Automatic annotation (TrEMBL):
The lineage of its organism: Eukaryota, Metazoa, Chordata, Craniata, Vertebrata. This is F-box and leucine rich repeat protein. Coiled coil: none annotated. Pfam families: DUF7885, LRR_6. Residues 137-326, 475-607 form the F-box/LRR-repeat protein 15-like leucin rich repeat domain. Gene3D superfamilies: Ribonuclease Inhibitor (3.80.10.10). One of its GO terms (biological process) is SCF-dependent proteasomal ubiquitin-dependent protein catabolic process. One of its GO terms (cellular component) is SCF ubiquitin ligase complex. It comes from Hippocampus comes.
Amino acid sequence: IFLQTSDRKEASLVCRSWYIASQDLCFQKNVIFCFPASASSLELVRSLGRRSRCSLIIRQLDGFSLSRSLLLEVRRVGLDSLALPGSSVTEASLLALLPRLTSLRRLDLRGLDSLFMSGAFLSRKEHRQQVKSAISGLEELDLSDLRYLSDLTFNRLTGCTPRLRRLALAGCHIAFEFDPYSGCPVGTVKVSSALLSLRNLRKLLTEQSATLVALDLSRTSITPESLRTIAQVQGLALEDLFLQSCKELTDYSVEVLVKHQPGLQKLDISGCTELTSRAVVAVARGLSSLTDLSLSRDWKITETGLADLVSVPSLRSLDLSECLHVGGAEMVKGLSRCLAERAQLEKLNLRSCTYMRAVFSLTQVLGGSLRELDLTSCVNVTDLSVRAIATYLQGLVVLRLGWCKEVTDWGLLGMVETSTFICPHSPRQEDRGPRFTRTFGNMGFFKPPRLPFEERPKLVTPDDLKQFKLQAGASLLALRRLRELNLSACCKLTDSSITQVVRFADLQCLFLSSLPDITDASLLAVARHCRALTSLELSRCAHISDRGVAQAAPFLHRLQHLSLSACNHITDQSLLLLAQHCQRLKTLDVSKCNKISGTTVDHLQSQLPFLENLHCKISGGTDFSL
Ligand SMILES: *[C@@H]1O[C@H](CO)[C@@H](O)[C@H](O)[C@H]1NC(C)=O
Ligand SMILES: *[C@@H]1O[C@H](CO)[C@@H](O)[C@H](O)[C@H]1NC(C)=O
């Protein structure tokens, strides 16, 4: 068992031999270096020269000499993958580079309009030959968000990459039916120099059908007829297809897709607002290898078909966020089947499913495989649901409960509210430990008299109860593997629960914004018990003050992102402490903190070497970001 990445990074700073140990080759798989074009990155790239097979993401390259020298250095690195987001490189500098990248597997030219605007990229045959002989092994090409991609430039580039496995054209202007330039239906003009046509895309898919398994056409205006054309390409057997926000797609087009591409494993049809449950039924019946499905924002979807969908045994990840008509009962039905006949979900997103009612039953049937659960804005999540999560979903790594406004301290503590137990607000209870958990099994949690939202109370059997009593307890503490927890805007929470149960050794991201009742006691407890924190949000927690920051900062030296926005008791004093103790801060949000002065902000910037984003408000001025 190895330390997690962030712990390993920390350990590597202890001494030279630990540093060398942390550089062991077994940790060096899929290493990605991500940096902006700058003088210091030149040094970095030089030092990479000896390393083989790494990936680079270089931001903000331009046509000036620094960028050019950087690209010259990149030529010497044994690159696996290259991405140049937010850059404006010239054709010449890329042409100087590409013929050297013989081991390249992945090339990301997303949004690089500067390269395609003139239409002359790769127009010379000898350039094409050079590039092709270098990158003919390229497997992944991302050409998303290119405004000026045309049949001509597309063909020149893909002509150099004859064995693509993955192609992304998200957000490109593809002419699916009608060519506005020639004024006739697509297909009449052979190869367009003005736009990318369906006909041309189809030609590529046909040529490379033997290798191509993933296609991203999100945010295009693809029509049902065009999707049919693509799905029917001879020999094409897609595994991953992304059609996010393709608003013209209909249920019928999903039915046709599923019929012709039955091997699909990942399908993203989120934001396809015309789709209804008919599409869900088609997917459930037709895609027996499905692992990941996103139906987010397909708000016409109802319960129908969801039982069959979660009965697809290969399904691992399901996104139903903002599907307002989903109540959960059908999912419970599907997941109640025996293990071999149902999904072992690892990720479930139910954000903003406001009518989600079966949370309790769902948690019971989801099982120990679940790693990520998002119940943000599910207003019917109650204390009982939280106790069920802590009891049945102990494998959770990510839990999001933002805006679950009914949740109270009782739920987090794993206790039933009784008149004899007064939820304590006393500040000195912090170290007494979780004594409540041991007795919880006897406190009648499974015999609440009426559960209006609980449709299948019969699911709780005496066996459940027996098993439950064996467990350590049902407070949030049971979720020992948590790395991300979001309790923002669960406005009934107070120090009583936060100081007791937010104690997770591996927790990296904690969001506690808009909790009006929590005080410095919560901040201190969190800092002491969650030493691995890298992100902490406490915005709009009005009681957090300099005193809390003073006590907590010494424990938070790994912090990289901190938000104290609209915490009005925060003053310059906190900033000085942060500068002293939290040297790794990259983003700091102290906007709407009225008591912070300009000179301290200047000081902070000079003291924090990694600071990239600072949101603040200088007294009397307006909010701004640096
Ligand atoms: C945490 O939850 C709040 C409230 O739902 C939300 O606004 C915020 O974006 C969430 N934070 C993250 C990082 O998910
Ligand atoms: C869900 O919550 C809403 C708002 O809090 C409430 O009006 C409704 O009765 C609840 N539904 C169930 C089934 O509990």
